[in-house]
Write a structure and sequence with these properties.
The complex is a heterodimer of chains A (438) and B (717). Chain A starts with 12 loop residues before the first strand and ends with a strand. In chain A, strands 1, 2, 3, 4, 5, 10, 11, 12, 13 and 14 form a 10-stranded mixed β-sheet that branches. In chain A, α3 crosses α15 and α4 packs antiparallel against α5. Chain A has a domain of 273 residues: Thiolase/Chalcone synthase (Peroxisomal Thiolase, Chain A, domain 1). Chain A is 37% helix and 18% strand. In chain B, α20 packs antiparallel against α26 and α26 crosses α29. By secondary structure, chain B is an alpha/beta fold. In chain B, α14 links the parallel β12 and β13. Chain B has 30 helices and 21 strands. The relative contact order of chain B is 0.06. Chain B folds into 3 domains: 281 residues, 2-enoyl-CoA Hydratase, Chain A, domain 1 (Alpha-Beta Complex); 178 residues, Rossmann fold (3-Layer(aba) Sandwich), CATH 3.40.50; 209 residues, N-(1-d-carboxylethyl)-l-norvaline Dehydrogenase, domain 2, CATH 1.10.1040.50. The chains are: A alpha+beta (438), B alpha/beta (717).
Chain lengths: 438, 717
């Protein structure tokens, strides 16, 4: 697998620019805004800011996890709503938490293979929009009622309903539970905390760091550089300029007071040291480098390599430790060459577990079959503008958001090489290496 | 038949022995019911009636998407005698009566506009089928021209759909789409537009089948209403008297046609159709020579011409637009773009302002949704075309930028300069100034040829006029692009030369100023306003100042005062009122006080009556009205003299569409023609003696008096 994916003469793929909506905790200010509308805002602002002629976009690819019932193919729906001409096709990708980065990967495949030269890639997610579902029993009864031709038939259908049929199924809870191992995402984080012996204190400290960094980045305008303010319909009385998540007043004491959420008695994972469910969207303009330059763009950076890898669904939080070495090998570099790192913060426990696994020779030997560990992560270079614990994690979006935040920070620091990596529900990891363009 | 002249009708065989009568006027874009067409129709119907092999007759149009546009309005204009009009109506009735009494069943297949006489023809058929194409619209718009449907339509419509829906159509002239027409009972079925003629043939055949059930869907009036109204003289009387009251309230009794329609219905509903026809024809004769009708017809022809004239050969397509300034004006303009399907980006300096613009636009769309004109999806689609920003992101993509920031020369100049540096080199810069000269705004612009004025009137979504302002430097392509765009936005553009106040505000200002002078002389505001409303203005001049805003009016007055200084000075009443926070309706206090119940004169304002004049007060409404109108006429003539506008007709169109000058008067200068140049100059000279030299008739008026000229004869200046 250690093959560099870039042979000489192959087209180079760059990210020209990107923009996202502010992120807001579910049930917050974006609760009534659909995933399609969030995506429309991100894509139309991307088109406006890059001033690209939308007719020359070859494809719109968006990540999304909780497909709304009325918007089956969000990539297409958002594309049309954002004013991309109808001749430009669009589709939606789903790789759970890595859907946003999968969209960028799709753009890469198409451009590298010469099938496209400009692609809008990103993600959109309204976790507020996830519905309540009727139980099987209630659904069957409803269908029978509809089909029954006679009054007695209809009555029979109604009598089939049992009290236990009434409580609805909660789509978001079911979506965040792994059907293979039966654990929900928080429980997989608990498992890592126990296995890697990560204390509550360590998790809370990490969560606090995330908030502090996010607040600082917001105040310094670093996050504003990637956010298109959103005028919240239908009354437009609120303008959302910043993420609705980072807590200015967050303290260790406050974090310590929270009850463990997933394992009430022996657990350490709380809502305070986990990422919140979130609404938001992000869009990137991915282009063939020679076209981008011909059109006068100064790209944010170039896609150097990427990789997806599978792992144990019950320990999905370790995904970055499986995907990162593949991406590094494909680029022919080492972790020590990486100057800046975005590692998605699904749970503080999971991030810390990754830090341990990255540095661990035994993990490298037993799990990756490698002689040397991946390398130690320097926290001062990781998630420097805060992460999902503070900003939020709209699942279909975060991959694209990490690429955007990373590239903007690389540009500020004039960093040469950066890594964006995520753990993926269902037991996968995703990693993408990005490099500065000259 | 062998004939040399091309014919408007041909008959083709349809399935099941039906004859399909194809109306296809040669060398014309639309089918019009001219006299020769009607002559030919009589001949064709006569012949077909004798053909025993014909099982039914289906009338269709040979022009795809165009059924029948109605009668020839220019021909109506040329009728000079009431008797002639009456005879023409009677002839049309006789022609359609042949269709109504055709020995076999008849039907009309309507695809495209079906207007006036076209609908009357369809009404004479037994069945009507309409296509579901959006272009299919049915209407009897005669009332808008000051006449009535007199080819049997006024009589037949209430018999078909019931009196209440018929009144709605006859008195407003509004059009129905196919779906509504079916619900009203006006058409029997709506068929898909694809293969429409074949489908209509089949639908007709089905109804010809022996034993076919007469599937009349009569949704128009429910049966209880028919029993209560249509079949009941007392019910009819109540409905008609209510309608009369509403017409009088809406029109001030200035328009004879709707009242005459009510007369005809009053005397014909429930009587044999022949009596209705006679009444229709008589009414048509009387109305057609009525001066109001002549004015309305002239105005109609004028506005039709304005849709194409001036032509725009150098126009570029506007695919995207930007609006600078998201206030009420900017938001309204942006909404207009979105409603026309043009993506538009609003820029302002504060997020609240941008959000306010979006909220304003959405409010306009939501209002239309609540009235059933838009669906929720339409609103969402329009809102998706709007975006907002604080910086100039995305500006380069705009083909046209509308500057709608505060009316201040320095601010506008600076904004235009900033924009010019950031737009695409092809983009048109349109400034929505209401009075500033383009030459002043263009100062420091790298390419002044791209600057053009696009003056919308408030409220943007309601006012049908825009002034397209051109300077010497303005390029033909900038002008044409803007004129074409204004039409696309559904507005009527009038091209005016860059000069202070342009046309409408400049002509209106002397009128308002004379009103203020009369007020200062002690004329009660409500009496003055009432006098002008009775003349036909939509509101009186003092109420209009309140509506526009005293501050805005003052600003425009200053601009004009600087441009056209006068030794007499200007009324100095607005300054103190604005200083006291009386900005008009928007601050709930101007000349009037505004409460939930409405407005009432504010006695406090009368302390500003500084030059009481018993003679002015006692001279009475007629003299007040004359004084205000003469001031306007004199100013309009000066505009023509200075070539601010190309023709007297354009002045008339602009004043009607821009200020609500009463349409039934035909326009300001048409009204002047009616007064006559001699009277106008005499009165102006007299006023110049008593009131001041500002009334001195301008050179053009004096010259026209010498030449016994009329404005309407001067097509172009």
């Amino acid at each position: 697998m250690g093959v560099s994916i870039r042979a000489t003469g192959e087209p180079r793929v760059v990210v020209v620019d990107g923009v996202r909506t502010p992120f807001a905790k579910s049930g917050g200010p974006l609760a009534r805004v659909s995933a399609a509308e969030l995506g429309r805002h991100a894509v139309s602002e991307l088109l406006a800011r890059t001033e690209i002629d939308p007719a020359t976009v070859d494809e719109v690819v968006l990540g999304n996890c909780g497909t709304p019932a009325d918007a089956a193919n969000l990539g297409r729906i958002v594309s049309l709503a954002a004013g991309v001409p109808r001749a430009v096709p669009g589709f939606t990708v789903h790789r759970n938490c890595a859907s946003g980065i999968e969209a960028v990967a799709q753009a890469y495949y198409k451009i590298a293979s010469g099938m496209a030269s400009a692609i809008v890639a990103g993600g959109t997610e309204s976790m507020s929009e996830y519905p309540l579902l009727w139980s099987r029993g209630l659904t069957d009864a409803f269908v029978e009622f509809q089909r029954a031709k006679s009054l007695p038939g209809k009555a029979r259908a109604l009598f089939r309903v049992r009290p236990r049929d009434f409580p609805p199924r909660v789509a978001i809870a079911e979506g965040l539970t792994d059907p293979t191992c039966g654990l929900n995402m928080g429980e997989t984080a608990e498992r890592l905390a126990k296995e890697f012996r990560i204390t509550r204190q360590a998790q809370d400290e990490f969560a606090l760091l995330s908030h502090e960094r996010a607040v600082a980045a917001t105040d310094a305008g670093r996050l504003a550089a990637e956010i298109a303010p959103y005028y919240v319909p239908p009354r437009y009385q609120e303008t959302l300029e910043h993420d609705f998540g980072p807590r200015r007043q967050q303290t260790l004491e406050a974090l310590a007071k929270l009850k463990p959420f997933f394992d009430r008695r022996h657990g350490t994972v709380t809502v305070g040291n986990s990422c919140p469910v979130t609404d938001g969207a992000c869009a990137l303009l991915v282009m063939d480098e020679s076209r981008a330059r011909a059109e006068g763009y100064r790209p944010l950076g170039r896609i150097r390599s990427f990789a997806f890898a599978g792992c144990d669904p019950a320990r999905m939080g370790l995904g970055p430790a499986y995907a990162t070495p593949l991406a590094l090998d494909r680029a022919g570099v080492r972790l020590s060459d990486v100057e800046l790192l975005e590692l998605n913060e699904a749970f503080a426990a999971q991030v810390i577990a990754c830090e341990i696994a990255f540095a661990s020779p035994s993990f490298a030997r037993d799990e990756l079959g490698r002689a040397d560990p991946i390398g130690g992560i320097d926290r001062s270079r990781m998630n420097v503008n805060g992460g999902a614990i503070a900003l939020g994690h709209p699942v279909g979006v975060s991959g694209a958001r990490l690429v955007l935040t990373l590239l903007k920070e690389m540009q500020r620091r004039q960093a040469g090489l950066g890594l964006a990596t995520l753990c993926v529900g269902g037991g996968q990891g995703a990693a993408m290496l990005l490099e500065a363009v000259a | 038949m062998e004939r040399v002249i091309p014919e408007a009708f041909r008959v083709v065989d349809g399935p099941g022995d039906i004859a399909v009568l194809v109306f296809d006027q040669p060398e014309a874009r639309v089918n019009l019911l001219t006299e020769s067409v009607l002559d030919e129709l009589v001949r064709v119907l006569k012949k077909l009636a004798q053909d025993e092999g014909v099982s039914g007759l289906l009338v269709v149009s040979g022009k795809p998407g165009q059924f029948i546009a109605g009668a020839d309005v220019a021909a109506i204009r040329d009728v000079r005698e009431a008797g002639d009009g009456q005879a023409k109506a009677a002839f049309g009735q006789a022609v359609f009566e042949r269709l109504a009494s055709f020995p076999r069943p008849t039907a009309a297949a309507i695809d495209g506009p079906c207007m006036g006489g076209g609908l009357e023809l369809a009404l004479a058929c037994r069945y009507r089928f309409a296509s579901d194409a959006p272009a299919t619209r049915l209407a009897l718009p005669e009332v808008r021209l000051g006449i009535l449907p007199a080819f049997g339509g006024t009589t037949r419509l209430p018999r078909l759909v019931g009196l209440v829906p018929a009144l709605d159509l006859l008195l407003t002239g509004k059009s129905l789409d196919a779906r509504r027409a079916r619900r009203t009972g006006l058409v029997d079925d709506v068929l898909p537009r694809e293969d429409f003629r074949e489908r209509a043939e089949r639908a007709f055949l089905e109804r010809l089948r022996p034993g076919a059930r007469p599937s009349r869907v009569r949704a128009g009036s429910p049966s209880w209403m028919r029993a209560l109204v249509d079949g009941n003289p007392a019910g009819r009387a109540i409905v008609l008297s209510q309608a009369r009251r509403r017409v009088l309230a809406d029109t001030g009794g200035h328009y004879p046609a709707p009242l005459r329609i009510l007369d005809v219905l009053e005397r014909s509903v429930g009587r044999p159709v022949s009596e209705g026809f006679a009444l229709e024809a008589e009414a048509a004769g009387d109305l057609i020579v009525h001066p109001v009708t002549r004015n309305l017809i002239a105005l109609f022809l004028l506005s039709e011409r304005a849709k194409k004239d001036p032509p725009t050969p150098a126009a570029a397509e506007v695919r995207r637009a930007s609006v600078l300034g998201a206030g009420v004006m900017g938001g309204g303009i942006a909404a207009l773009f979105a409603a026309s399907g043009i993506p538009v980006r609003m820029k302002d300096v504060r997020h609240e302002a941008v959000a306010g613009g979006l909220a304003h636009a959405r409010g306009l769309f939501e209002r239309d949704r609540k009235r059933g004109r838009l669906t929720e999806r339409d609103v969402a689609r329009r809102m998706a075309l709007l975006s907002g920003t604080l910086d100039y992101d995305g500006l380069r993509r705009a083909d046209l930028v509308v500057e709608a920031v505060v009316e201040n020369l320095d601010v506008k100049r600076q904004v235009l300069r900033e924009v010019a540096a950031r737009v695409s080199p092809r983009a048109v810069l349109a400034t929505n100034t209401s009075s500033l000269r383009l030459e002043d705004l263009a100062e420091g612009l790298p390419s002044p040829e791209r600057l053009v004025g696009l003056h919308f009137f408030n409220p943007v979504h309601r006012m049908p006029l825009v002034e397209v302002v051109v300077a010497e430097a303005t390029s033909p392509s900038a002008r044409d692009t803007t004129v074409a765009l204004a039409r696309r936005l559904g507005k009527t553009p009038v091209v005016v030369r860059s000069s202070p106040g342009f046309l409408v505000n400049r002509v209106l200002m002397p009128y308002l100023e004379e009103a203020l002078r009369l007020f200062q002389a002690g004329v009660p505001m409500e009496e003055l306003d009432r006098a002008l409303v009775e003349f036909g203005m939509p509101m009186g001049p003092i109420a209009l100042v309140d509506e526009v805003g005293l501050d805005v009016a003052m600003k425009v007055a200053h601009v004009l005062g600087d441009a056209f200084p006068s030794a007499e000075g200007r009324p100095d009443i607005l300054g103190p009122l604005v200083g006291a926070g009386r900005l008009g309706k928007k601050s709930r206090r101007g000349f009037y006080r505004y409460t939930k119940e409405g407005r009432e004169p504010d006695p406090a304002v009368y302390s500003l009556v500084t030059m009481p004049s018993r003679s002015a007060v006692q001279s009475g409404p007629e003299v007040w009205v004359e004084r205000l109108l003469l001031a306007m006429i004199n100013e309009a003539a000066r505009c023509l003299e200075e070539r601010v506008v190309a023709s007297a007709q354009q002045v008339d169109l602009a004043m009607i569409l821009g200020t609500g000058f009463p349409p039934f008067r035909g326009g300001l200068l048409r009204y002047a023609d009616m007064l006559g140049m001699a009277k106008i100059t005499d009165r102006l000279e007299a006023l110049a003696q008593t009131e001041g030299p500002r009334f001195t008739p301008c050179g053009l008026l004096r010259q026209m008096r010498e030449n016994k000229g009329r404005f309407r004869d001067e097509m172009a200046w």
